[in-house]
Design goal:
Strand order of the largest sheet: 1-6-2-3-4-5
CATH superfamily of one domain: endopeptidase domain like (from Nostoc punctiforme)
CATH class of one domain: Alpha Beta
CATH topology of one domain: endopeptidase fold (from Nostoc punctiforme)
Strand content: 5-15%
Order of helices and strands: HHHHHHHHHEEEEEE
Radius of gyration: 33 Å
Helix content: 55-70%
Mean pLDDT: 74
Largest sheet: 6 strands, antiparallel
């Protein structure tokens, strides 16, 4: 929560919803011991735990929704490819049927004709008759090929029709699943809003203070442990991805969003690497499952830090123990301590790329200095 927003809530008592939406998400391991219950309600630590749980459930549901959306895109593309192939096959089938019909008519017309052998015996020029026989044989082979194409086109059309129906069924199933997952996200966010709306300005301030202290403590322990080594220079692509992500600072979080106006956590990281020229999977779980793992002591700017045991949140390492992330509803894209959430691990989209020589790190105290502002590609 920004100090200005917090002061606005505390002094002017504006809506509790607006104030509480800016609470940071902290590692579960760093949550302070529960305090004695406040008169007439839960302790600050209990409120914080509830908020963290609800936000995490919402993000987990959002990641499931995003995963289904990606599968749905694949099924739509597959259905389009199959339908295009089926249309071409049906056109070829119609042409083959026309050719087969012409062959049948020719065969019927030749039934009453003189056989090729009799023509050869009666011919005045046997060589000419033999040449005709060669032509007749060639026509017979072409007829056999035409019949073969007809049979092959019929089999292919039948197979493609079945596959197209199966793709459509899968698409309808995924569409229904996506709707249910979208509704689940909305229910989780409604739960968050109800809890926030029930809190007083003093409770919101206390929750924000506790969360900020927990993050600071977790960050201090991580940095003191030596788990993060001295910063390494990024690759050229990693530098581009980071600069794109930094250029999105201040834009709002919106689940399912991939920019340019708003982002969710994996929407930001996937778009940043897409703009850098290295496409990566869309969701945090896919990024964790498919990209190369790197230890924390080998992190370099542009690498992705994945959070929670089920990989439901992701951020981009910016150096100096900081990450760029789209945190959660109500909070904009921001720079945060790497230990803001419980770390699962890190992945690198370009493991074979060489680091940049003579790299000049971004000034994280002012990532958009007037003389070094990168253009907004969005």
């Amino acid at each position: 929560m920004s100090g200005r927003l917090l002061r606005r809530v505390c002094t002017a008592c504006t809506t509790t919803m607006l104030a509480a939406q800016a609470v940071l998400l902290t590692p579960a391991s760093a949550v302070a011991a529960p305090e004695p219950p406040e008169p007439g309600g839960r302790s600050v630590a209990e409120l914080l735990t509830d908020l963290q749980r609800l936000y995490r459930e919402a993000e987990k549901a959002a990641e499931a929704h995003n995963t289904t959306e990606e599968k749905l895109k694949e099924r739509r593309a597959e259905a389009e490819r199959l339908n295009a192939r089926l249309a071409r096959t049906r056109l070829s089938l119609n042409e083959s049927r026309g050719a087969a019909g012409r062959l049948a008519r020719q065969q019927y017309q030749n039934i009453t004709g003189i056989s090729p052998y009799v023509r050869l015996l009666l011919a005045r020029d046997p060589q000419h008759a033999l040449d005709q026989g060669h032509v007749i044989g060639q026509l017979a082979r072409e007829r056999a090929e035409t019949v073969g194409r007809l049979e092959g086109s019929e089999r292919e059309a039948d197979v493609l029709a079945r596959r197209a129906r199966a793709a459509l069924d899968a698409q309808l199933t995924l569409t229904e699943r996506k709707k249910k997952e979208r509704d689940a996200v909305r229910r989780r966010l409604d739960d968050v809003e109800r809890l926030l709306a029930s809190l007083s300005a003093d409770q919101l301030t206390a929750v924000a203070d506790l969360e900020r202290d927990d993050v600071a403590e977790a960050q201090q322990k991580l940095m003191a442990s030596g788990a993060l080594s001295d910063d390494r220079p990024p690759s050229t692509e990693g530098d581009r991805a980071l600069r794109y992500a930094v250029d999105q600072l201040g834009k709002p979080y919106e689940w399912g969003a991939e920019g340019p106006a708003a982002y969710d956590c994996s929407g930001l990281t996937s778009q940043a690497w897409q703009r850098a020229g290295t496409p990566i999977p869309r969701t945090s779980q896919q990024q964790w499952a498919r990209l190369d793992r790197v230890p924390l002591d080998a992190l370099r700017p542009g690498d992705l830090v994945v959070y929670f045991p089920d990989a439901t949140h992701v951020a981009m390492y910016a150096g100096e123990g900081m990450v760029v992330q789209a945190p959660r509803p109500g909070e904009p894209v921001k720079l945060s301590p790497i230990a803001t959430n419980p770390i699962l691990g890190a992945v690198r989209p370009d493991p074979e790329a060489e680091p940049v020589e003579d790299y000049k790190p971004l000034d994280l105290s002012d990532p958009h200095p007037p003389n070094d502002r990168t253009p907004n590609d969005a």
